[in-house]
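Researcher: I'm comparing several assemblies side by side, and this is the next one on my list. It has 778 residues spread over two chains. Same procedure as the others: predict the full complex and return the structure.
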Amino acid sequence: MTIGIVLSKPPKYSETFFNSKIKGLQQSGYKVVLFVQENPDAYNLCKVICAPKVSKNRALQVVLYGYVLLKLLPFFNRVSTFISLEKKRNRSTIQWLKNLYTNAHIITSHVDWLHFGFATMAIQSESVAKTINAKSAVSVRGFDVDVFPIKHPNCYKVLWESTDKLHAISNYTYRKAIASGLSKAVPFQIITPAIDHSKFEVTSDVIRDDFKFVTIARLHWIKGLDYTLEALSLLKKEGVDFQYTIIGEGQELEQLKFAVYQLQLEDRVRFVGQKTPEDVITYLSEASVYIQYSDSEGFCNAVLEAQAMGLLCVVSDADGLKENVIHEKTGIVVPKRQPQLLAKAIKNLLLLPNEMKQHMRTNAQKRVAEQFNLEKQQTEFLEFYE
Amino acid sequence: MRIAVFSGVIPSTTFIEHLIEGIANSHDVLLFGTLQKPKTYHSNRIKTYSNSKSKFKSFVVSCYRFLILMFRYPKRLSVLFSEVKKQKGTYNKRRTLVRVLPVILYKPDVFHIQWAKDLEHWVFLKETLNVKLVLSLRGAHINYSPIANETLAKSYQINFPKVDAFHAVSEAISIEAQRYNAEATKIKVVHSPIPASTFEHFSTYKIPESAVFNICVVGRFHWKKGYKYALDACKILKDKGFDFHLTFIASNPVSEAVLFQIHQLELINHVTILKGLPQADLFKLMKTFNVQLLSSLEEGIANVVLEAMAIGLPVIATHCGGMAEVVKPNTNGWLIPVRDAEAIANSIIEVSQSSEGQLKEITQNAHDFVKHHFQALDSIQKFEELYQSVLK
């Protein structure tokens, strides 16, 4: 059986869970093909097929289109099926002509499952799976169901009608997929992300009692970093002596730096930018508390990694994070968008007796090791395609 | 006096255009910069030496200017060459040549720079041609850009001491600028004036007839406007069962963050987003609201608040930038801390519980205050004094 996975780019070698999924499938006798827009680093774990390039130069684009049409000639039946499916969906001629071009690399391939790695990637490709007689699977992650449908109402109407099986990374993303119009009759499986435990190990058995906080996040509004900073300014006013490191980069650096200045946190907060996976581990091993006070998350891998490394996690209740951390058992879950509550929660956590902190830490490590490991994820994906 | 008012573009923003026309009543005003759209000035004392966006036109005009410079002021050629030489790469050299050539040729007595980020390109005017430099201290250029950008902060620290006089839009921003070596004695606070016509929209306050309490927020979607706190406040109001409706009036499309927050907090039925309107229509619409809210994290002095005060709409504003110089609690409006949704919600409830008599008094005070302190004629006079002081 061949499984085709549609992504914008092949996964990086550091994206362990993706690579492990591919390896797991291959070990069980599946063939895996990646359909991508570009393959800059010559990914070689499996076969990679790139989409036809789109040129801004119109004349060149006409030539490229002609070339792709030639390649499609031996697949005349598929092309005619594709066009009739597109017409049934009332797509304009221009639109289906575009779709025929951008999907040509899949139309000329043979797979049994066509799995879109993100729901947003499947838009305008809804007719492809049926055209090539493959089953259609879609993964839904945070952004797919959180933000995108608000900006583009009904964007998944066609997609959900043509999906054979859905993969959600959390109960939350599944619920949001239903809210965006997916029928409950469509089979689904929740497979959470997983981490490679050999890479994220506890460096010390003794719990750190210094107040070093850390967050790994793109500097993006959805990560709630301004609320986090406001909570920390409340802690500072109460005399808590902490240091906070934010790992990541993004377009909101200016406003976050301004927040640090306005909240008088310049002596407490540092932005260290993006770091390599190895450096991230060093930063994590030097901190005691991990904060992820996002406005919204599908699930959040970074929180899994922090738990595995023995950091105490304080997260918001938005919304996949509630499944990632169990309140008061494996960490602390705080209602979103309420910095006063976050400040209180962090303070209470710091005041816990060491044996209770240790207990929470062990619970978290145990749960992450048992439920979010690569072997479990591999088995679940095998089930998914069965 | 020959005063250059430089913002980089022609025409400039509304308040800079007011300044240009005001000064031209008694002085020559020289305008340099890129022509964005055709603009004719009624005063013949306003002289435009623009550059075109078209490379070809720009080239022809620059050749002409170069020839004049060569024959009339050959000594200034060395200034031009040394400025161009400082740049790296042909592209930057060419751009600098086109930009500085007309200024060197038509040399003003005073070069008034509107945006602090431009200062470093013009310090040479003072150093080589003894042109006096005046710099306006406005909003983001002082309040947060140098905080996030260390190179910019350093360039301010080096160049601010070379400026002859500063114009600050508020007391608060003049203090902020001193962090970057602006000398306190060289700073003069001149408020951005409100045109006389705005005050004509004033009428004695009456509580609007509406089943719900209507809040308006005027301003573009940008993080510094603090809309997330306005929306968090809406959630608090909704949870309290307070019946309200909030309307954003903005000239740009709604941001993803605001849109998401409205949905996440289930505020769709409580929030409306309207496109920006021409000023006269905007004032008419504003008067149908119960209160205007400014939730900003940073401002010079927000014009929208001055306007609301001028036309007689109660205002709630955050204590940021120079807002405290305008909004006086218990007298002419409500002033609340920044980044505090709870405070926004409480102040909205407080306004809703105020009697018509109290609101009449507050809005009248607000109107009188703005009329007294933000007169157009007054501010032009202050600018003239500022220019004269540097030429002494």
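Model: For your comparison table: Residues 212-371 of chain A form a domain with the Rossmann fold fold (CATH 3.40.50.2000).
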